[in-house]
Amino acid sequence: MTDSAAVVTGAASGIGRAFAESVAEAGADVVIADIDIDGATTAATEIADDTGVEAVPIETDVTDEAAVESMFDETIDRFGRLDAVFANAGIAPAERDLHEYDMSHWEQVIDINLRGVWLTDLYAAKAMSEQESGGSIINTASVYGLSGLETLAYSPAYAASKGGVVNLTRTLGGEWGELGIRVNAIAPSHARTDIGGGFFKEDFEAAEALQQQVEDRTPLGRIPDPEELKGIALFLASDASSYCTGYTYAVDGGWLASR
After folding, report:
1. In angstroms, rounded to a whole number, what is the distance separating the alpha carbons of residues 110 and 161?
2. CATH class name, domain 5-191+225-251
3. pTM greater than the 0.85 cutoff
4. For 254, which of 16, 22, 100, 219 could close a Cys bridge (C-beta 3.0–4.6 Å)?
Protein backbone atom coordinates (compact mmCIF):
# COMPACT_ATOMS: atom_id res chain seq x y z
CA MET A 1 0.00 0.00 0.00
CA THR A 2 2.85 2.39 -0.69
CA ASP A 3 1.88 5.82 -2.05
CA SER A 4 -1.53 5.55 -0.41
CA ALA A 5 -3.30 7.17 2.52
CA ALA A 6 -5.66 5.77 5.11
CA VAL A 7 -7.84 7.08 7.93
CA VAL A 8 -8.69 5.05 11.03
CA THR A 9 -11.17 6.32 13.60
CA GLY A 10 -10.86 5.15 17.19
CA ALA A 11 -7.21 4.45 16.43
CA ALA A 12 -5.59 5.50 19.70
CA SER A 13 -5.78 1.96 21.08
CA GLY A 14 -7.21 -1.51 20.72
CA ILE A 15 -8.56 -2.78 17.43
CA GLY A 16 -8.36 0.66 15.81
CA ARG A 17 -4.66 0.91 16.54
CA ALA A 18 -4.15 -2.58 15.11
CA PHE A 19 -5.93 -1.49 11.92
CA ALA A 20 -3.70 1.58 11.68
CA GLU A 21 -0.60 -0.51 12.22
CA SER A 22 -1.66 -2.98 9.53
CA VAL A 23 -1.82 -0.41 6.74
CA ALA A 24 1.22 1.51 8.01
CA GLU A 25 3.29 -1.67 8.00
CA ALA A 26 2.25 -2.13 4.37
CA GLY A 27 3.53 1.36 3.52
CA ALA A 28 0.45 3.60 3.75
CA ASP A 29 0.48 6.99 5.43
CA VAL A 30 -2.23 7.04 8.06
CA VAL A 31 -4.42 9.43 10.04
CA ILE A 32 -4.86 8.36 13.65
CA ALA A 33 -8.29 9.81 14.46
CA ASP A 34 -9.64 9.65 17.98
CA ILE A 35 -11.51 11.75 20.52
CA ASP A 36 -8.56 10.97 22.83
CA ILE A 37 -5.98 13.24 21.22
CA ASP A 38 -3.24 12.38 23.72
CA GLY A 39 -3.65 8.68 22.97
CA ALA A 40 -3.82 9.38 19.24
CA THR A 41 -0.63 11.43 19.38
CA THR A 42 1.21 8.68 21.22
CA ALA A 43 -0.02 6.04 18.78
CA ALA A 44 0.89 8.16 15.77
CA THR A 45 4.41 8.77 17.05
CA GLU A 46 5.01 5.10 17.77
CA ILE A 47 3.57 3.92 14.45
CA ALA A 48 5.64 6.45 12.51
CA ASP A 49 8.80 5.44 14.39
CA ASP A 50 8.15 1.73 13.84
CA THR A 51 7.18 1.86 10.16
CA GLY A 52 8.69 5.00 8.66
CA VAL A 53 5.37 6.21 7.25
CA GLU A 54 3.72 9.52 8.08
CA ALA A 55 1.18 9.08 10.87
CA VAL A 56 -0.93 12.11 11.76
CA PRO A 57 -3.09 12.39 14.89
CA ILE A 58 -6.40 14.24 14.48
CA GLU A 59 -8.82 14.84 17.34
CA THR A 60 -12.21 13.71 16.06
CA ASP A 61 -15.63 13.19 17.58
CA VAL A 62 -17.34 10.92 15.03
CA THR A 63 -20.80 12.07 16.16
CA ASP A 64 -19.95 15.65 15.13
CA GLU A 65 -20.60 16.03 11.40
CA ALA A 66 -18.42 19.14 11.07
CA ALA A 67 -15.54 17.40 12.83
CA VAL A 68 -15.77 14.36 10.53
CA GLU A 69 -15.86 16.56 7.43
CA SER A 70 -12.87 18.53 8.72
CA MET A 71 -10.94 15.32 9.37
CA PHE A 72 -11.24 14.30 5.74
CA ASP A 73 -10.48 17.80 4.47
CA GLU A 74 -7.29 17.75 6.54
CA THR A 75 -6.40 14.30 5.23
CA ILE A 76 -6.75 15.36 1.60
CA ASP A 77 -4.81 18.56 2.25
CA ARG A 78 -2.02 16.56 3.87
CA PHE A 79 -1.76 13.55 1.57
CA GLY A 80 -3.61 14.56 -1.59
CA ARG A 81 -5.56 11.29 -1.70
CA LEU A 82 -7.67 8.88 0.31
CA ASP A 83 -7.44 5.15 -0.34
CA ALA A 84 -8.78 3.37 2.73
CA VAL A 85 -10.96 4.36 5.66
CA PHE A 86 -11.73 2.33 8.77
CA ALA A 87 -14.93 3.53 10.47
CA ASN A 88 -13.96 1.88 13.71
CA ALA A 89 -14.76 4.23 16.61
CA GLY A 90 -17.27 2.72 19.00
CA ILE A 91 -18.20 2.04 22.59
CA ALA A 92 -19.63 -0.94 24.48
CA PRO A 93 -20.98 0.13 27.88
CA ALA A 94 -21.76 -2.61 30.35
CA GLU A 95 -25.26 -4.07 30.41
CA ARG A 96 -27.84 -2.43 32.65
CA ASP A 97 -30.84 -3.92 34.42
CA LEU A 98 -34.11 -3.42 32.53
CA HIS A 99 -35.56 -1.31 35.34
CA GLU A 100 -32.50 0.97 35.35
CA TYR A 101 -32.27 1.34 31.58
CA ASP A 102 -32.66 4.91 30.35
CA MET A 103 -32.75 6.46 26.90
CA SER A 104 -29.52 8.39 27.38
CA HIS A 105 -27.66 5.07 27.42
CA TRP A 106 -29.36 3.93 24.20
CA GLU A 107 -28.81 7.26 22.46
CA GLN A 108 -25.11 7.44 23.34
CA VAL A 109 -24.38 3.97 21.96
CA ILE A 110 -26.41 4.43 18.77
CA ASP A 111 -24.94 7.91 18.24
CA ILE A 112 -21.34 6.74 18.34
CA ASN A 113 -21.60 3.21 16.96
CA LEU A 114 -24.05 3.79 14.10
CA ARG A 115 -24.35 7.51 13.39
CA GLY A 116 -20.58 7.83 13.74
CA VAL A 117 -19.99 5.05 11.23
CA TRP A 118 -22.49 6.58 8.79
CA LEU A 119 -20.90 10.03 8.99
CA THR A 120 -17.44 8.56 8.51
CA ASP A 121 -18.60 6.51 5.52
CA LEU A 122 -20.46 9.44 3.99
CA TYR A 123 -17.58 11.91 4.05
CA ALA A 124 -15.07 9.25 3.08
CA ALA A 125 -17.17 8.45 0.02
CA LYS A 126 -17.47 12.12 -0.90
CA ALA A 127 -13.69 12.42 -0.89
CA MET A 128 -13.11 9.12 -2.71
CA SER A 129 -15.68 9.89 -5.41
CA GLU A 130 -13.60 12.86 -6.50
CA GLN A 131 -10.60 10.69 -7.39
CA GLU A 132 -10.37 8.19 -10.22
CA SER A 133 -9.07 5.40 -8.03
CA GLY A 134 -12.12 5.19 -5.76
CA GLY A 135 -11.26 3.56 -2.46
CA SER A 136 -12.11 1.06 0.25
CA ILE A 137 -14.24 1.68 3.35
CA ILE A 138 -14.13 -0.82 6.20
CA ASN A 139 -16.68 -0.61 9.00
CA THR A 140 -16.26 -2.24 12.38
CA ALA A 141 -19.29 -4.38 13.17
CA SER A 142 -19.37 -7.23 15.72
CA VAL A 143 -20.44 -10.83 16.00
CA TYR A 144 -23.28 -9.33 18.04
CA GLY A 145 -24.44 -7.60 14.88
CA LEU A 146 -24.89 -11.06 13.38
CA SER A 147 -26.34 -12.88 16.38
CA GLY A 148 -28.15 -12.19 19.62
CA LEU A 149 -26.49 -11.34 22.91
CA GLU A 150 -25.19 -14.22 24.94
CA THR A 151 -23.12 -12.64 27.69
CA LEU A 152 -23.65 -9.78 30.09
CA ALA A 153 -20.78 -7.83 28.58
CA TYR A 154 -22.77 -5.69 26.16
CA SER A 155 -26.11 -3.91 26.00
CA PRO A 156 -29.09 -4.30 23.62
CA ALA A 157 -28.09 -0.91 22.21
CA TYR A 158 -24.69 -2.32 21.29
CA ALA A 159 -26.19 -5.29 19.47
CA ALA A 160 -28.69 -3.05 17.68
CA SER A 161 -26.00 -0.58 16.63
CA LYS A 162 -23.75 -3.30 15.25
CA GLY A 163 -26.66 -4.93 13.42
CA GLY A 164 -27.22 -1.52 11.87
CA VAL A 165 -23.59 -1.39 10.78
CA VAL A 166 -23.92 -4.79 9.08
CA ASN A 167 -26.94 -3.70 7.03
CA LEU A 168 -25.49 -0.25 6.36
CA THR A 169 -22.46 -2.03 4.92
CA ARG A 170 -24.66 -4.15 2.65
CA THR A 171 -26.56 -1.10 1.47
CA LEU A 172 -23.56 1.13 0.78
CA GLY A 173 -21.66 -1.69 -0.87
CA GLY A 174 -24.51 -1.95 -3.34
CA GLU A 175 -24.99 1.76 -3.85
CA TRP A 176 -21.40 2.96 -4.15
CA GLY A 177 -19.91 0.22 -6.31
CA GLU A 178 -20.51 2.28 -9.42
CA LEU A 179 -18.31 4.99 -7.89
CA GLY A 180 -15.42 2.56 -7.49
CA ILE A 181 -15.91 2.57 -3.72
CA ARG A 182 -15.95 -0.76 -1.91
CA VAL A 183 -17.65 -1.00 1.49
CA ASN A 184 -17.10 -4.01 3.73
CA ALA A 185 -17.15 -4.68 7.46
CA ILE A 186 -15.15 -6.65 9.98
CA ALA A 187 -17.10 -8.35 12.77
CA PRO A 188 -14.73 -9.24 15.60
CA SER A 189 -15.71 -11.34 18.54
CA HIS A 190 -14.41 -10.63 22.02
CA ALA A 191 -10.87 -9.26 21.94
CA ARG A 192 -8.38 -8.15 24.56
CA THR A 193 -9.08 -4.41 24.47
CA ASP A 194 -10.37 -1.72 26.83
CA ILE A 195 -13.81 -1.67 25.23
CA GLY A 196 -16.66 -2.80 27.46
CA GLY A 197 -14.65 -1.98 30.55
CA GLY A 198 -11.77 -4.24 29.54
CA PHE A 199 -13.65 -7.43 30.43
CA PHE A 200 -11.47 -9.59 28.21
CA LYS A 201 -8.04 -8.31 29.15
CA GLU A 202 -5.75 -10.89 30.68
CA ASP A 203 -5.31 -8.86 33.86
CA PHE A 204 -9.06 -8.36 34.47
CA GLU A 205 -9.42 -10.95 37.22
CA ALA A 206 -12.99 -9.92 38.08
CA ALA A 207 -14.11 -11.16 34.67
CA GLU A 208 -12.40 -14.56 34.70
CA ALA A 209 -15.71 -16.43 34.71
CA LEU A 210 -16.94 -14.47 31.70
CA GLN A 211 -13.66 -15.01 29.87
CA GLN A 212 -13.87 -18.73 30.53
CA GLN A 213 -17.45 -18.80 29.22
CA VAL A 214 -16.33 -17.19 25.98
CA GLU A 215 -13.29 -19.45 25.59
CA ASP A 216 -15.42 -22.55 26.18
CA ARG A 217 -17.84 -21.49 23.42
CA THR A 218 -15.09 -20.58 20.93
CA PRO A 219 -13.79 -23.48 18.80
CA LEU A 220 -10.27 -22.05 18.81
CA GLY A 221 -10.52 -21.92 22.58
CA ARG A 222 -9.07 -18.50 23.32
CA ILE A 223 -9.67 -14.75 23.22
CA PRO A 224 -7.60 -12.99 20.55
CA ASP A 225 -5.32 -10.00 20.75
CA PRO A 226 -6.19 -7.06 18.44
CA GLU A 227 -3.14 -7.84 16.30
CA GLU A 228 -4.91 -10.94 15.02
CA LEU A 229 -7.25 -8.66 13.06
CA LYS A 230 -4.42 -7.12 11.06
CA GLY A 231 -4.63 -9.67 8.25
CA ILE A 232 -8.30 -9.12 7.43
CA ALA A 233 -7.81 -5.35 7.79
CA LEU A 234 -5.00 -5.27 5.23
CA PHE A 235 -6.91 -7.57 2.89
CA LEU A 236 -9.95 -5.29 2.84
CA ALA A 237 -7.96 -2.04 2.66
CA SER A 238 -5.80 -3.18 -0.24
CA ASP A 239 -6.32 -4.30 -3.84
CA ALA A 240 -6.23 -7.90 -2.61
CA SER A 241 -9.98 -7.50 -2.06
CA SER A 242 -10.66 -5.61 -5.29
CA TYR A 243 -13.80 -7.67 -6.07
CA CYS A 244 -15.25 -7.66 -2.55
CA THR A 245 -17.98 -5.30 -1.41
CA GLY A 246 -21.09 -5.24 0.77
CA TYR A 247 -19.95 -8.11 2.97
CA THR A 248 -19.26 -8.53 6.68
CA TYR A 249 -16.31 -10.74 7.59
CA ALA A 250 -16.50 -12.39 11.00
CA VAL A 251 -13.16 -12.88 12.75
CA ASP A 252 -14.32 -14.85 15.76
CA GLY A 253 -12.37 -18.07 16.21
CA GLY A 254 -15.44 -20.00 15.07
CA TRP A 255 -17.82 -18.36 17.57
CA LEU A 256 -20.70 -18.01 15.10
CA ALA A 257 -20.12 -21.41 13.54
CA SER A 258 -20.53 -23.07 16.93
CA ARG A 259 -23.84 -21.44 17.80
Report:
1. 5
2. alpha beta
3. yes
4. 219
